[in-house]
Write a structure and sequence with these properties.
Length: 162
């Protein structure tokens, strides 16, 4: 009994000392609006440190000195590290904005003129330039069907067929 308790305590301590690195990408086909809606959830600190590598301007995600500049940096980073093809054709994601929720950032993007998704390909290297232990969870919903996949560094490619 004591041995089990000690194992749980050691596991808990190791979990505190060794954080996990994960993001969540949700892609939802909105047939009524003919769009693909993309939501990306990333830990605030991880995103801030990563984007900071690409600019000399000091960033503070919680209290930005220039909100428009921060939005531009987030949008540029996301569209550079998440690339999609829908039905074999590359698409352009339009960055809509972000919001802070507790310790994470939700960013929103949209792809217009998507009437149907038969095949979605994703090339995702999100936060791979920050942490080699990064995992990206991808959830795609189309035609009332949900599919998910997990990309662990260095894997960056997944295909969803509906």
């Amino acid at each position: 009994m004591v041995n089990i308790l000690v194992q749980w305590m050691v596991t808990g301590i190791l979990a505190l000392l060794h954080p996990f690195y994960v993001s969540v990408i949700e892609i939802n086909h909105n047939a009524k609006e003919a769009t693909a809606e993309v939501s990306v959830r990333i830990f605030t600190e991880d995103l801030e440190k990563t984007i900071q590598k690409y600019t000399t301007t000091r960033l503070d995600m919680l209290k930005p000195a220039d909100a428009a500049f921060l939005d531009k940096q987030i949008g540029n980073y996301l569209t550079r590290t998440i690339r999609l093809k829908i039905n074999g054709q590359p698409v352009t994601m339009n960055y809509l904005g972000h919001e802070i929720q507790k310790e994470s950032v939700w960013s929103y993007l949209e792809i217009p003129k998507v009437t149907d998704i038969k095949k979605l390909e994703i090339d995702c290297s999100l936060l791979y330039d920050f942490e080699k232990l990064q995992s990206n969870l991808i959830h795609v919903k189309s035609k009332n069907e949900d599919k998910s996949y997990k990309l662990d560094y260095p894997k960056n490619y997944a295909v969803f067929e509906f």
